[in-house]
Design brief:
This protein is α/β, with parallel strands linked by helices. The protein has 13 helices and 16 strands. It is 36% helix and 16% strand. It is globular and about 65 Å long.
Length: 419
């Protein structure tokens, strides 16, 4: 029995209908921009392994830094203790935001960084005796798969079985600030915060919204005195061309959620950043005002070590230039795709993200076109995992001209062969 058959019998995979996927390719190792399967096949990772990998797989600088840390410390309880790499990482991340945030709360992944943000937001008001209990979020949003994160996301196929258990949220269109005006006027003393994915809604189909309209909504929220929560889990660490998507905007959030690219895609880690004003609302002799949240692996030493090494690579000038280069390449290819005779609904790019929507009878995540595209590209040794009828490319910054050309050429081949 080969590994893929054994795996199918033993593991319940995420986002997978096993009835349609009885076997799985087995990845034995990864290096640079490629996965290597057990049969020797080399697969180009054109989506950064679910948007987490920044610098290519098995990067020697990250592995070396983890190895040094592992010799001294692997894990320590973070309630009541700390360690050097956690302190250094918190200080460096906070420094990237120019001192706007004073505290970094550690967790394990993107969903939990969002859960922490929600708890901070609700308890910030509760600790001050306020009854603000409503969250406003954007239509078509996605913030993770834990219950709080599902509640503040658009009701969709991702959360349908759990709709009866989710708390109520007011949803507004990111491109229509007037909807936010209406909600704030209807609940002037009840809204606790506005959460948003700045500029790009990832799992919702790589949908973009312009900085001008988003800034209008953020200004309205600030004027109303509610907290702004930026979910930068996908958009952070250079994906939109700026170091963080919020840097495209005039109005800045009170809380920031980070994960995915934080460790360069090597180990799980989440951070939730808060302003000093939020932190002070939890400081009291009354222990009931404590933020009672934590995880066994909070602040894991190896994850912090990987994040520090990844950050050093990210801030180098050659990495910044590679991001700018990928942005130019995506923009040029987007222009080319618009000239093709094909049922393309929309082509767009921002930073290192390229997305193409195809006209289909059934749009959205469950479109069968997504499965067909995924198989087409995998058969050609390229990992692209479309969001239904939306094909996207989100490569690591280690991609060179050969990898970009191969990816683009395969996309054009698909379009010409199918349409």
């Amino acid at each position: 029995m080969n590994y893929s058959q054994r795996d199918a019998a033993a593991i319940w995979h995420p986002y997978t209908q096993h009835f349609r996927s009885p076997e799985f390719p087995v990845i034995k190792r990864a290096e640079g921009n490629y996965f290597y399967l057990d049969d020797g096949t080399r697969v180009l990772d054109a989506i950064s392994s679910w948007w987490v990998n920044l610098h290519g797989h098995s990067h020697p600088a990250i592995l070396e830094r983890i190895s040094r840390t592992m010799a001294d410390l692997q894990q320590v309880m973070f309630a009541g203790f700390t360690h050097p790499d956690a302190v250094c990482l918190a200080e460096r991340i906070l420094g990237l935001f120019g001192g706007r945030y004073s505290k970094a709360f550690f967790s394990d992944n993107g969903s939990t960084s969002v859960e922490v943000a929600l708890k901070m937001c609700f308890q910030y008001w509760s600790n001050q005796g306020s009854e603000r209990k409503k969250i406003v979020a954007f239509k078509n949003s996605y913030h993770g798969d834990t219950f709080g994160a599902m509640s503040i996301a658009e009701r969709s196929v991702f959360s349908r079985p759990f709709w009866p258990f989710l708390f109520e949220v007011e949803f507004v269109a990111p491109e229509n600030p007037e909807e936010l005006v209406e909600v704030l006027s209807r609940y002037p003393e009840e809204v606790a915060g506005l959460i948003y994915e700045p500029l790009v809604q990832g799992a919702g189909g790589m949908r973009f919204h312009g900085p001008e309209l988003l800034d209008q909504s953020l200004a309205l929220a600030k004027k109303a005195g509610i907290l702004l929560i930026a979910d930068e889990v996908m958009t952070g660490f250079g994906r939109t061309g700026e170091l963080f998507a919020s840097f495209h905007l005039e109005h800045q959030p009170d809380i920031v959620c980070l994960s995915k690219g934080l460790t360069g895609g090597v180990l799980p880690l989440g951070l939730t950043l808060s302003t000093e004003a939020i932190y002070r609302a939890f400081q009291d002799e009354d222990r009931n005002k404590t933020l009672f949240h934590g995880h066994s692996f909070t602040g894991n030493a190896l994850s912090c070590s990987a994040a520090l090494a990844s950050l050093e690579l990210l801030l180098r000038e050659d990495c910044k230039e590679k991001i700018r280069w990928l942005e130019r390449m995506h923009r040029d290819f987007s222009s080319h795709l618009r000239t093709l005779v094909a049922p393309i609904r929309d082509v767009r790019s921002l930073g290192t993200i390229l997305a193409v929507d195809f006209e289909t009878e059934r749009s959205g995540y469950l479109s069968d076109l997504g499965l067909a595209m995924q198989k087409f590209f995998m058969d050609r040794g390229i990992l692209l995992r479309p969001l239904g009828n939306t094909l996207y490319v989100l490569p690591p910054y280690s991609f060179g001209a050969a990898e970009v050309d191969r990816t683009y050429s395969s996309i054009e081949t698909f379009i010409r062969s199918q349409f």
